Amino acid sequence: xxxxxxxxxxxxxxxxxxxxxxxxxxxxxxxxxxxxxxxxxxxxxxxxxxxxxxxxxxxxxxxxxxxxxxxxxxxxxxxxxxxxxxxxxxxxxxxxxxxxxxxxxxxxxxxxxxxxxxxxxxxxxxxxxxxxxxxxxxxxxxxxxxxxxxxxxxxxxxxxxxxxxxxxxxxxxxxxxxxxxxxxxxxxxxxxxxxxxxxxxxxxxxxxxxxxxxxxxxx
Length: 219
Fold this sequence. Notes:
Elements: H1 22-28, H2 41-47, E1 54-58, H3 64-71, E2 75-80, H4 83-95, E3 101-104, E4 116-122, H5 128-140, E5 142-153, H6 174-178, E6 186-199, E7 205-217
């Protein structure tokens, strides 16, 4: 997982509201690498089926998804709350000879201001009202014929909990997100429950249950 609020980590804190500040994430990304460095698997699966175009990676964290997309030929805009994280993404992209755009934004305040061929948000952990609003803005960012891909923890995924989160409603189903989209505006809307193998924080094989929303806007 390479996500935060614009990237939530698995870390305990006595002040959960700190999760939602730029200062918290700047400090978090100032130390050792937080995530695996691998792109999220559902993004790889679905984006590999698409012709490269413009892409928005919201909550880019350390940039594994954004860099992978750029390597596949996408014109990528990476958005995160942390300027420190985005500076790291820029440095890694430059070392790889990749061009991508980094923008700082707070998920509680960000609004759609342009459209993309692919909009991806992976494992965004927000209180439900803020998460619903973000999903609406992400949907508004999908251009004609474009794809919306939202992935999160499914309610069945009891063994893969985001540690330290105090909100009971951070989990959702693909169908819940699908229900917020107008079928008249989308050619396909798929709300999915997908299982995948992963290695847990103790190094043991485990199975995660993900909520996946994949929708294609009408052209």
